Amino acid sequence: MRAGTRRLPPLFWQAIFILLPVTVLSVVSLISLRRDEQTAEQDARNRAVEDSQSLAWAMRASVSAELQRFLELQNGWITGARLAGQPTVTGVFFDHRLDSDIREWDKDYPGLTIAELATPQGEILADGRQIDPPEMPVVPTPPKWFLELSPRQKKLWERLRRAVEASEGRASIEKANETFFSSHPSDEALSATIWLQQPPTNMIGNSDAFPTETGLSFEEIACYRLLSAKDANLTDSLVQSIWWQLMNHSSFTSDRLLEMAETLTNRTDAALSQRVYWMRQYWNAQSKVRTRLPLLRQFSILTNWNAGQSRAVWVDQSDSGGLALLEPCTVGATRIVPRATAISGPGIVQAGRVNEWIQLPVSNSPAERGYTVWFVPRQVVKAIFTRALEENKFFISGYETPVVTVAGQSFVLSARKPSLADSSHSQLLGSASQTAGAVSMPDAVPFSVNLYLTSLEQMLSAEHRRIRLFAMLIIGAIFSALAGLAASWRAFNRQQELGELKTNFVSSVSHELRAPIASVRLMAENLERGKIPESSRQNEYFRFIVQECRRLSSLIENVLDFSRIEQGRKQYEFEPANLVALVQTTVKLMEPYAVEKGVRLEIADAGVSSIELEVDSRAIQQALVNLIDNAIKHSPKGETVAVGIEMQKTHGGPDADRLLTRAALFVADHGPGIPPEEHGKIFERFYRRGSELRRETQGVGIGLSVVQHIVEAHGGHVRVESEPGKGSRFTIELPVTKLNE
Question: Contact 407/314 with Cβ under 8 angstroms?
Answer without folding.
Answer: yes
